[in-house]
Amino acid sequence: MGNLFNGAEFFEMMAANEKAVGDLYRFLAKDAKFGGKFFENMAADEDRHYGIYTSLLKKYQGKKDLMVELAEDRKSYMDLLIKNNYLSDPEKLKERAANAKSKEDIFDIAERIERDSVMFTQEMIDLFPDLDPADFKVVLQEEKKHLAMVLDKRMDSQLKSLRL
User: How many domains does the chain contain in total?
Assistant: First the structure.
């Protein structure tokens, strides 16, 4: 038989991630050479995602809807995702960003963040098919859009550096 997985903890992690990403993007926005307005806009989206996750957590917390039984391999996978969460230490990540020497370094950080966000949101949709999928799909769409935007910016930056 499977193991119980506490989805509330996953929601809390995702909300904390969105808050940390918003803070990191605001930090990056202060340095115009790394994107300025681009990261300001991204931070505003992350703040909205934080609001979505915290309101969903309040809506479902305490209900058994957030406890899911998973097969052992899926439970292990989810535990690994949480344990190896790129944003588990936001201060260390902010320090890494502060020490970045190039746009490539910044966009590498942003790409990893957005890839994780897409993956975590998709996992949430898969874990809780009975919850209103519209709430998650909005965030998933935006996270995919963020990833595409970061990849575009990264590509533009690489092309510009090749032309110099």
Answer: 1
Tell me the pLDDT tens digit for each residue of 28-73.
998 767 778 899 999 999 999 899 888 888 887 766 667 888 999 9
For residue 94, give Cα distances in angstroms to 49, 54, 59, 60: 20, 23, 31, 31
pTM of the entire predicted model: 0.86
Query: Residue 96 belongs to a domain with what CATH number?
Result: 1.20.1260.10
User: Domain residues for 68?
Assistant: 3-163
User: 103 - beta bridge partners?
Assistant: none
Under 8 Å between Cβ of 87 and 50: no
Q: 3-state secondary structure string, the chain?
A: CCEEEEHHHHHHHHHHHHHHHHHHHHHHHCCHHHCCHHHHHHHHHHHHHHHHHHHHHHHHCCCHHHEEEECHHHHHHHHHHHHCCCCCCHHHHHHHHHCCCCHHHHHHHHHHHHHHHHHHHHHHHHHCCCCCHHHHHHHHHHHHHHHHHHHHHHHHHHHHHHHC
